[in-house]
Write a structure and sequence with these properties.
35% of the residues lie in helices and 20% in strands. By secondary structure, it is an alpha/beta fold.
């Protein structure tokens, strides 16, 4: 395996050259970037998958929606539609993708949720649909250079820092580490609860080697809530994690953080792991139920993620899980340092852009 990975290194050099050259063309203006009148805040990464973009966007929604009219724009990975789709009461994961549908399920009455492969088309569409929009949150568009955001937020996973990684296919980076120079702030996500200041300072020193001078670095951790019923036909609307017997079902990029956190409180009897953005079929559900029923243990239940839960919410799945305890785990992010500074940066950037555009 190690030898095979070494054989990939020349391809990483080629891929690195291509992405650097593409970025250079944008940097010198040979390829145009559009800055819209409405402020655009991008949450992205330079690593393939699993840095926690979705809960960070939800964090921004919760903390900005009382001050600004918001819209979110994603590509809509895993959806069965193409082009522009603006979420409405008929939205589901197949139409707009799992993560955008999660946004719509939680905040649909308060924000505009849209998906479009071409953000340069999607942003004007949001403004046409909801002209009162004051901010557009871009999901995973750090490499989408056609749009120039007012604020570029770069995420990096604590356990997979971009500073220690390499470009695809030898590593997991979508572009060179120096792509971080486009970031206006960096968030180290999924940090352990007991992360010491000494280690934070060390990580910050590593990061600012690749960013613009004085780029702020923040640290966040994942906070899990009380498991909630996927369907309303469960005997209880909530379940406890404490010493619970769980059968875990995930279709996310990196489930290691989740499983390690669950094992601190509960017993994970089994884990059915699907690819990221997996579209669940009834046959998948039948296999999940069969595997669950084979497990021994009292008061056991199936647990999935919020992102996966939205894809099970249809009458067919509800009937199939009618007598099965099936719950999902709510997720939020919380800051370990400088939360007020972070929110001040975001809000000041938005207000400054809106003033300049009047």
């Amino acid at each position: 395996m190690h030898l095979f990975k070494l054989l990939l290194f020349p391809f990483s050099i080629l891929y690195d050259f291509i992405t650097r050259f593409r970025n250079h063309l944008y940097d010198i203006g040979n390829k145009p970037s559009v800055r819209f009148d409405v402020p655009v805040v991008n949450v992205g990464n330079i690593t393939v998958g699993g840095t926690g973009k979705t809960p960070h966007i939800e964090y921004l929604i919760r903390n900005l929606k009382s001050d600004f009219k918001l819209g979110t724009l994603s590509r809509g990975y895993g959806r069965k539609t193409k082009g522009l789709v603006i979420a409405d009461h008929e939205a589901n994961a197949k139409k707009i993708g799992d993560e955008p549908f999660q946004f719509y399920s939680k905040f649909g009455d308060e924000i505009t949720v849209a998906v479009c492969e071409e953000r340069i088309i999607g942003i004007p569409a949001i403004l046409s649909e909801a002209p009162e929009t004051e901010v557009v949150l871009l999901d995973d568009a750090f490499q989408h250079r056609k749009v120039k955001p007012q604020l570029n937020i770069l995420l990096t996973d604590y356990k997979r820092l971009f500073t220690k990684d390499f470009v695809l296919p030898f590593g997991r980076l979508r572009e060179s580490r120096y792509g971080a120079k486009r970031a206006d702030c960096v968030i180290v996500s999924k940090c352990p609860e007991d992360l010491e200041e000494r280690e934070k300072n060390q990580i910050e020193e590593e990061i600012i080697h690749y960013t613009k001078p004085e780029t702020p670095v923040f640290f966040t951790k994942i906070s899990y809530g009380v498991p909630k019923a996927v369907f309303d036909n469960n005997s209880s609307s909530e379940a406890s994690l404490q010493k619970a017997n769980l059968f875990l079902v995930t279709g996310i990029a990196n489930s290691q953080y989740l499983t390690s956190e669950l094992e601190k409180e509960a017993v994970v009897l089994g884990h059915k792991e699907f690819p990221d953005h997996h579209e669940y079929a009834l046959s998948d559900a039948e296999k999940i139920i069969a595997a669950f029923q084979k497990l021994s243990g009292r008061e056991k239940y199936i647990l999935t993620t919020e992102k996966d839960a939205v894809k099970f919410r249809s009458p067919e799945f509800q009937e199939l899980f009618r007598n099965i305890p099936f719950y999902y785990l709510p997720i939020e992010v919380s800051f370990q340092n400088g939360e007020s500074d972070f929110l001040a940066i975001v809000k000041n950037k938005i207000r400054e852009a809106n003033r300049n555009n009047k």
